[in-house]
Amino acid sequence: MNVLVINCGSSSLKYQVIHSESEEVLAKGICERIGIDGRIVYQPKGGEKEITESPMPTHTEAVKMVLDALIHPVTGVLKSLDEIDAVGHRLVHGGEKFAASVLIDEEVIAAVEECSDLAPLHNPANLIGVRACQEVLKGVPMVGVFDTAFHQTMPMEAYLYGIPYEYYEKYKVRKYGFHGTSHSYVSKRAAEILDKPYESLKTIVCHLGNGASVCAVKGGKSIDTSMGLSPLEGLVMGTRSGDIDPSAVEYIAKKENLDMEGIMKVLNKDSGVYGLSGLSSDFRDLDSAAQEGNERAKTARDVFCYRVAKYIGSYAAAMNGVDVICFTAGVGENDGRVRESICSYLGFLGIEIDSEANKKRGEETTLSTQDSKVAVLLVPTDEELAICRETVAIVS
Ligand code: AMP
Asked: What is the pTM of this model?
């Protein structure tokens, strides 16, 4: 079965075509600047990356361009569009309605629209991608895979905020969590690597990318995660503040004369390691600056690592122990210094890191020593493959 995996944002659309039996990526790429001017990047398996500038007024044109590239007589990977058997869509917020992936129909679309209040930047954009695919690929089954679904197993004590209960009842204000597809994929993969039953393990997954979150997975179920109602809570991220005293928010807003939109922009776009360093949200830049003696770059990285370590400690407490800690996503897969710094706080758990193994990037590696009481693994995430697998499971 060939699955087209779509991750649609407000002005971009990432795609992959995966052959589900071999799990081979036949082609991948991204449409960018949709509605502005338009640019498609297309890379067939084993082939060169092609970049074409072309007007893309709406997502429908973007989807059409992706499909044209896929069936191009020379560089295409499919003979015709009939070879696309299903489409898997990344959907960000499923609220409390979706605890698993679903076959998309009008009822599901309406329910996702209802959750848009909770994710105004993401859900409408995701649904535009669904509509565009429905228009161009009539009759092809579409599956929605939610970022929030994996965390619907969290118990009430983990997902309720300490605010009047009526806000949960009336407005569903609670912790939802995100990156669920990645946390689920990585925690399962860790069980396979360790050759232990998934249900027997207490796992902590650190998804450390530009957006970052930690998840406690007990017996194969998410029991807590660091992101909340929105992806702003939790870790200090590339440009997001993560946890902060709400009074600090009010104080800054008053001092800087900012309205709600202004202060939310500060917390989402101007904060995190970018705001702390005053330099960059990219850990590669922070690393080189820190090595050249830039103290603020070093401090930003230290704040990031300390926060991750604190979450790991609290999740070890929440699960009454931990068997395995996984590092994944851009920073987690590539930045050995960050991993080492985080693990330097975790000696109390009996964790020992093999500094040679910790030099590895982007490939499955056991980072802990033989004597370590907790296994520490580098597990590259693959959200597209996870979406493909979910899609096949639902469609079959
Ligand atoms: P993601 O959101 O998972 O795509 O991660 C993106 C982030 O990963 C970038 O902003 C960088 O901070 C980080 N990253 C990517 N490659 C490296 C690398 N080789 N070394 C350190 N950090 C990296």
From this structure: 0.96
